[in-house]
Design brief:
Layout lengths: L5 H13 L4 E5 L5 H9 L5 E6 L2 H13 L7 E5 L2 H4 L8 E6 L6 H11 E10 L15 H15 L3 E6 L5 E6 L2
Parallel strand pairs: 1-2, 1-4, 2-3, 4-5
Antiparallel strand pairs: 5-7, 6-7
Length: about 180
Amino acid sequence: MRVVSPGTGAALRLLAATADAKAVVEIGTGTGVSGIHLLHGMRPDGVLTTVDSEPDRQQLARTAYREAGFAANRARFIPGRALEVLPRLADGGYDLVFCDGDRLEYPDYLAESLRLLRPGGLVCFEGTFAQGRSMDAAHQEPEVVRLRELMRSVRDHEALAPVLLPTDDGLLCAVRRR
């Protein structure tokens, strides 16, 4: 299980604060590290919706959030595969979508994120450098090929203004233009 680096966490906190985020979706709960960073950046009345196919991970995150001082009503845990859960979430109802799930599904997460985000909202993808492999054409593993596809899609999408932040393993972010 991957855990976001302190640099990535600080970037997420900053982005959530900059967006004045009240509603955030996180794909890939993990142990709750990224969620804690997002919650610290969000408005005090904000709610983090976190999706993971492993309920035991969500239990770890629930404990971590409580120990970090967040009230239980600040996070909504939805167990299940992201591509089955995301279509059930409200169109245009979210300020930020953070993707740290199955990297093979990242291009599909982009399509769902565009539907979920309000104009001016942010989408972020963790691990887009793939430990340097996505920047080296010699690497053709399926995950790396999908990451390159994602980066091209984000770069070329007329509704997005992207940036690739050089955090630990790369954080691809884009704002959905109004």
